[in-house]
Write a structure and sequence with these properties.
5 domains, Immunoglobulin-like, 9 strands, alpha/beta, 610 residues, Peptidase_M1_pepN_Ig-like, Peptidase_M1_dom, globular, three-stranded antiparallel sheet, 26 helices, aminopeptidase
Length: 610
């Protein structure tokens, strides 16, 4: 009854809690403000453990890259948004109102990225030396983030006083990059500038100066191969990826003996939690998607290309202009889909479009309806143009035999089920309905059965409602005694794309009265209410404000039962100031309603800061 993702998450959680024996128990925190000392470090350890487990017999760098991409995708969508909003705070906060609201993405996920930067600066051996010294000094003691930093500095003979700012400054740094090539001198200059842009007030209030940013870079030649890298003043080239120590507000690095105009591969492996600003052309991004040797940046190029196209289309959708998608974009996706040298797991990630939530966060004024229209247009265009390739990928990545949640088999299922999801976007989804119905009936694992049900729910939006209703009824009958599986049943319906005839909210309200729904069960509340508010932005942000009215009702209902869960739900509107004026007005009304009725300090802190 568990999916591939469930098995991976279980392994990660077990690893995380086991690793707390050393990083949390034997060496613990002096006070609550040092929480990231144990949680950020232990998240890093469980991420590395999961990456090692995923590598298996596969190409290690590619397998580890898949895990890295998954982790960064979560960081960008959730923690970067937290950094940009009213709940922004440093990795080591200075104060708190309600301790239950202290367990944040910043403390955990950004804290993990801060730990990872030590490894990027010193390498795996240097990082291990720092960890060994940390345990030697502090076993059996309650210590601080500074103690950890000092251990890393002393073990590696490096002054890390500037690095402390990663713990005390809030916000997501932005690094702008400018390059120039002197063909006659064979010199390539890279100028980096750091700042915070229009960050949240909390971010601006904590700024103390420039950060030490480990900035990994590669240079790629016209043939798609990495160029050897030699910085000015060095006697010889040293590898094809260099980590630049970027420590000033603005800093220039010069590479010498560069034989041709290169294309830079920036922030390889996401070497620090920053936003990179560089003026890549669409052709540049397509080239990196096809050739970059760094798997993370290969994925990143595709995401940048897709984000640019989708935001352009969203602007056209908002202006009621016709939508078109260039053939070069389709061709770039076709190359990835048919490239057998890439693992199925990597291709699934590379071919998945940025989420609607992430895209809306990139807009000056978030317009969820326009984003949804643009993203659905691109999904249908890719489904139509690559129909033959999706059908081939679906057929080629079956996993016959007994179910095994191995990384290799999980990757094959992921690509196969992505192909099925795209086919469900066709104007005539008959192929998807046929394949999904057969897959649902024959599935010997929850990954395939849930994916088939999801495809049928997507096809229902195009009018094929009967197969979806049949599968929903069957799914419930099969698993009504399995609470965690029924959570999936609720969540899939809450995230379903609605139609004018049947908005998703109407179904969600109906499901609130279902015998299996219990608001007092946190998992069940999350599966239905949270899924609608977080995983269905187009329906949640309905122009009439009905989604916000539902949100306020549920926050207040949960506040009377479980304030911690209510506070998590309350954060759904914390970025309300970044939306279009009409939506902002509706959100303000809902926030005021919750502020007037909330009883707990947990919820009041969230809505008052918003």
């Amino acid at each position: 009854t568990a999916t591939d993702t469930d098995f991976a998450n279980i392994e990660s959680v077990v690893g995380h809690e086991y690793f707390h024996n050393w990083t949390g128990n034997r060496v613990t925190c002096r006070d609550w403000f040092q929480l990231s000392l144990k949680e950020g470090l232990t998240v890093f350890r469980d991420q590395e453990f999961s990456a090692d487990m995923a590598a298996g017999d596969d190409l290690e760098s590619a397998a580890r890259a898949v895990k890295r991409i998954e982790d960064v995708r979560v960081l960008r969508q959730l923690q970067f948004a937290e950094d940009a909003g009213p709940m922004a705070h440093p990795v080591r906060p200075e104060s708190y109102v309600e301790i239950n609201n202290f367990y944040t993405m910043t403390v955990y996920e950004k804290g993990s990225e801060v730990v990872r930067m030590y490894q990027t600066l010193f390498g795996r051996d240097g990082f291990r030396k720092g960890m060994d010294l940390y345990f030697k000094r502090h076993d059996g003691h309650a210590v601080t983030c500074d103690d950890f930093r000092h251990a890393m500095a002393d073990a590696n003979g490096r002054d890390l006083a500037q690095f402390e700012r990663w713990y005390s400054q809030a916000g997501t740094p932005r690094v702008s990059v400018h390059t120039a090539y002197d063909a006659a001198a064979r010199r390539y200059t890279v100028t980096l500038a750091q700042g915070y842009g229009d960050g949240s007030p909390a971010a601006r209030d904590t700024q103390q100066g420039p950060l030490l940013i480990p900035f990994a870079i590669g240079l790629i030649g016209r043939d798609g191969r990495d160029l050897p890298l030699r910085l000015d003043g060095e006697a010889a080239a040293a590898g094809t990826t260099r980590v630049l120590d970027f420590t000033d507000t603005e800093q220039t690095f010069t590479f010498v003996d560069v034989p041709e105009q290169p294309l830079p591969s920036l922030l390889r492996n996401f070497s620090s939690p920053v936003i990179v600003e560089y003026d890549y052309s669409d052709d540049d991004l397509a080239f990196l998607l096809a050739h970059d040797s760094d798997p993370f940046n290969r994925w990143e190029a595709g995401q940048r290309l897709a984000t640019r196209a989708l935001l352009t289309l969203a602007a056209r959708a908002a202006a009621n202009e016709p939508l078109t998608l260039g053939e070069n974009f389709v061709a770039a996706f076709r190359r990835v889909l048919t490239d057998e040298s890439l693992s199925p797991a990597f291709r699934e990630l590379a071919l998945t479009l940025p989420s609607e939530t992430y895209l809306a966060d990139q807009m000056a004024e978030a317009d969820p309806a326009a984003v949804h229209r643009a993203r659905q247009f691109v999904r249908r265009r890719l489904a139509t143009a690559l129909r033959a390739e999706w059908l081939a990928a679906y057929a080629q990545h079956q996993t016959p035999g007994a179910y095994e949640p191995t990384p290799e088999a999980s990757g094959r299922r992921a690509l196969k089920n992505l192909a099925l999801a795209y086919l469900a976007e066709l104007e005539d989804p008959a192929d998807a309905v046929r394949l999904a119905s057969a897959q649902y009936d024959a599935a010997n694992n929850m990954t395939d059965r849930a994916a088939a049900l999801g495809a049928l729910l997507s096809a229902a939006a195009a009018g094929a409602t009967e197969p979806a209703e049949h599968a929903l009824d069957d799914f419930y009958r099969r698993f009504e005694k399995e609470a965690l599986v029924i959570d999936k049943w609720f969540a899939m319906q809450a995230a379903q794309r609605g139609t004018p005839a049947q908005p998703t909210l109407a179904k969600v309200r109906k499901l609130l009265a279902h015998p299996a729904f219990n608001l007092k069960n946190p998992n069940r509340a999350r599966s239905l209410i949270f899924s609608f508010c977080a995983a269905n932005p187009a329906q949640f942000h309905a122009a009439d404000g009905s989604g916000y009215a539902f949100w306020s009702e549920q926050v207040l209902a949960l506040d009377a039962i479980n304030p911690q869960v209510a506070a998590r739900l309350a954060r759904s509107l914390e970025l309300w100031r970044r939306f279009t004026p009409a939506l902002r007005d509706r959100m303000r009304e809902a926030l005021e309603q919750v502020a007037a009725g909330a009883k707990s300090r947990d919820v009041r802190e969230i809505v008052e800061k918003a």
